[in-house]
Design a protein that fits this description.
β7 and β8 form a beta hairpin. An eight-stranded mixed β-barrel has the order 20-21-23-24-25-26-27-28, surrounded by five helices. The chain is an alpha+beta fold. The longest helix has 80 residues. The chain has four domains: 99 residues; 146 residues, 2-Layer Sandwich (Beta-Lactamase); 152 residues, Reverse transcriptase/Diguanylate cyclase domain (Alpha-Beta Plaits, 2-Layer Sandwich), CATH 3.30.70; 247 residues, EAL domain (TIM Barrel, Alpha-Beta Barrel). The chain starts with a helix and ends in an 8-residue tail after the last helix.
Length: 757
């Protein structure tokens, strides 16, 4: 019996030996594979780096050549346009015969420019040459906006040919001069698409070369166009030793080609320069290919021999681990994104707080993220698009996480980030900027490219909280502050936020009482005509004097009204008062701001129709002002509401014009009756030539669009004179009148008012 009892022990030892052998084989194979892969990846990485460096060097050569070509073009043109005769015949006035001979013919015959345009200081066309012949120059209109933009830029003396040592005052500008006081050429060059072809555009001022007293104001400029044709490409290729140089509309994906994008002044893509690239790394890789193939064959042979031994063991182990991981993952993660859920995140926050206990040099940081206007995505594109956006946000965030970070989806469109980090002076600011950068690029939803922004609230422990729930609560307060300040930003928690929550609740309660007791009021700031300083109308401004809290800023209580559902009541109160005042002052035009919530509220237009019928006030005497923020947040619905206002006969003004990046687009999409120039362009206008230029440009734009312009914030005599000289239609500011009560305004318009000198 003793012999038979030893058999199970032998079998067990054999089984353990076999398992150990399998483990040894797997370990050896793993080490070998890792070594070979490390060698291959290192080699491939090195080759890629060499190729990338070569491609970048070639691109820099082409870019440098283009810059030199612009400077060379200016040097060629200066031969003819820096000349007393040129200045007399083309700089301030136009002698067509002289200009045709010495500019059109000479520059084409000697340097081959394809188009030449003589323009005045505002970019208006005076004469045009196609090759060596005069022609109408109708195609100049395609580049006129860019020319005007460059003229405005070089008017600030930021692009001067030569070493600028100072300026001399002319009638309309400060002109750059060198050490001897000789005027220097203002110039610019850029790439454009002209007549369907990419081309180089240069702009140069026409100057005298000896009699500098001729230069009294900004002279005319010469605009030259040279196409990137085959002659130009051949010359560039020979100079840079680059073969097969081409100009294309789009870059090819061939690995043996290199390309440099042609970028316009506004960042638009004009085409590509493309050429044959011969990177050194690829040549080395071709020579090493036989050795690499032999190494791969050797590795495959080893893998095949070990595969039979390890297959069953690895497959079983993988199945067990996959099942275990799947069960754990499903219990702790969000099904849509695969991120940790709220419960898992809270547990990890608690664990992180325990880890930093007693370590004053480390903090636990929580950042809550909420997508701005997510409901609009669901309402307009559907819930499938909303779900896809949630998944895309998760996919975009994950690669940007630092080591040890935890990203979770708490529900809906709310995400949370956990980071354990060393204490740093600017760590929170860096995190805030990092989070905002995630949303810099648009998202692709339903075949559309849509810009999505997000708001973030950040808190940290142990300085601000000791528990996960307290830390999340304070991050939520900071998130609320970020959304309160206009969204698309981040805010860190501060103790005053808790006080603000309490103050906001108090303000909401008091505002409800004020609306019930009719204790709000309106102030009026007169708007005068620039032509004779007479009062044309007034802007109605909300005012609230609380018996205990004193004067409360409209910014504060209007914001509370918008966030607590009181905006419709507040808006109805103001509209009714507005109509009452219009009936009391039959000769006065009155304007008032519309809140975004008020404009998009259901029944807003119907309420206005009721007031029109009740008060029988001519709607043409009422102007509603909207800011660009209203249009950005509610594009289609906002424009529909504005169109309805126009149909009822109301005037519509675009307030704070110039403070947003897309104001010009809104002027194209909707015919506003007024443009209110933001006060930032009026403040310090006495000393800011750029502000004066912008002011004149906006007023000229309004005149071209047949839209009246209103300058806000005029506080001094000099500001008023500059605004009047620029051609503004209406003026509003403390220099003329401060906001006043209805009684004061009534007394003012009831008597003759002396004009202001």
């Amino acid at each position: 019996m003793g012999r038979w009892t030893r058999i199970p022990d032998w079998l067990a030892r054999s089984a353990r030996a076999e398992v150990g052998a399998n483990v040894a084989v797997l370990t050896a194979l793993g080490v070998l594979i890792a070594l070979v892969l490390a060698v291959l990846l290192s080699f491939r990485h090195a080759v890629g780096n060499v190729n990338a460096l070569d491609r970048v060097a070639e691109q820099q050569l082409v870019a440098n050549y283009l810059d030199r070509a612009g400077s060379a073009s200016l040097a060629q043109q200066k031969v003819q346009i820096t000349w007393d005769d040129a200045f007399r015949s083309a700089g301030t006035r136009l002698d067509p015969t002289w200009a045709d001979n010495y500019i059109g013919d000479f520059l084409y015959d000697n340097f081959g420019y394809h188009r030449l345009f003589l323009v005045d200081p505002e970019g208006r066309l005076l004469r045009a040459w196609k090759q060596d012949s005069v022609y109408p120059g109708a195609d100049y209109a395609a580049i006129a906006p860019q020319v005007r933009g460059e003229l405005a830029r070089i008017a600030t003396n930021r692009s001067v040919f030569g070493r600028m040592q100072g300026t001399v005052r002319l009638e309309d500008t400060l002109w750059p001069v060198d050490r001897e006081g000789h005027p220097l050429t203002r110039w610019s060059h850029l790439q454009v698409r002209f007549d369907g072809h990419p081309a180089e555009l240069t702009i140069a001022s026409i100057l005298p070369d000896t009699d500098y007293s001729l230069l009294k104001r900004t002279p005319n400029h010469l605009v030259a166009i040279r196409f990137f044709d085959r002659a130009f490409l051949n010359e560039m290729g020979q100079s840079l030793l680059l073969e097969q140089m081409e100009a294309r509309g789009s870059a090819t994906a061939r690995t043996d080609r290199n390309a440099l994008p042609l970028v316009g002044s506004s960042g638009e893509n004009l085409g590509w320069f493309e050429w044959k690239s011969v990177p050194r790394g690829s040549a080395v890789q071709a020579r090493m290919r036989p050795i690499v193939i032999a190494l791969i064959c050797f590795l495959l042979a080893l893998l095949f021999s070990g595969w039979a031994v390890a297959r069953m063991l690895l497959a079983t182990l993988a199945q067990l681990r996959a099942r275990e991981a799947q069960a754990i993952h499903e219990a702790k993660h969000d099904a849509m994104t695969g991120l940790p859920n709220r419960a898992s995140f809270a547990a990890q926050v608690e664990q992180a707080l325990k880890q930093i206990a007693g370590t004053p040099d480390r903090v636990v940081v929580i950042a809550l993220c909420d997508l701005d206007h997510f409901k609009v995505i669901n309402d307009t594109l559907g819930h499938d698009a909303g779900d896809e956006l949630i998944r895309q946000v998760a996919r975009r965030c994950l690669p940007r996480l630092a080591e040890g970070d935890v990203l979770a989806r708490l529900g809906g469109d709310e995400f949370a980030l956990l980071r354990v980090a060393p204490v740093e002076a600017d760590g929170i600011k860096r995190l805030g900027r990092e989070l905002q950068g995630i949303f810099a690029a648009p998202f692709a939803l339903g075949g559309r490219s849509i810009d999505i922004t997000a708001s973030f609230g950040i808190s940290w422990a142990p300085h601000q909280a000791q528990t996960a729930s307290d830390l999340l609560r304070k991050a939520d307060m900071a998130l609320y502050r970020a959304k309160q300040r206009g969204r698309a930003r981040w805010r860190a928690f501060s103790p005053d936020m808790a006080e603000e929550v309490s103050h906001r609740l108090e303000l909401e309660t008091e505002l409800r009482k004020a609306l019930q007791q009719d204790s709000l009021d309106l102030a009026f700031q007169p708007i005068v005509r620039a032509s004779d300083n007479s009062i044309e109308g007034a802007e109605a401004l909300l005012r609230w004097h609380h018996p205990e809290l004193g004067e409360i800023s409209p910014t504060s209580f209007v914001e509370v009204a918008e966030q607590t559902g009181l905006m419709q009541l507040l808006g109805w109160w103001m509209l009714r008062r507005l109509f009452e005042c219009c009936r009391a002052w039959p000769t006065l035009h009155i304007s008032a701001n519309l809140s975004p919530v008020q404009l998009s509220a259901p029944g807003f237009i119907e309420d206005l129709e009721v007031l029109v019928r009740e008060y029988r006030v001519p709607t043409s005497r009422i102007t509603f002002e909207v800011t660009e923020g209203v249009l950005m947040e509610r594009r289609s619905s906002a424009f529909q509401a504005l169109a309805a206002l126009k149909e009822l006969g109301f005037s519509v003004a675009l307030d704070d014009f110039g403070t947003g990046y897309s104001s010009l687009g809104y002027l194209r999409m909707f015919q506003f009756d007024r443009i209110k120039i933001d006060r930032t362009f009026v403040q310090n206008i006495e000393n800011d030539l750029n502000a004066q230029a912008i002011l004149r440009t906006i007023i000229a734009l309004g005149r071209d669009l047949k839209t009246r312009t209103v300058a806000e914030g005029v506080e001094t005599r000099h500001q008023n004179q500059l605004v009047v000289d620029a051609g503004c239609d209406l003026i509003q500011g403390y220099y003329h009148w401060r906001p006043m009560s209805a009684e004061q305004l009534d007394a003012l318009i009831s008597r003759p008012v002396a004009r202001i000198a």
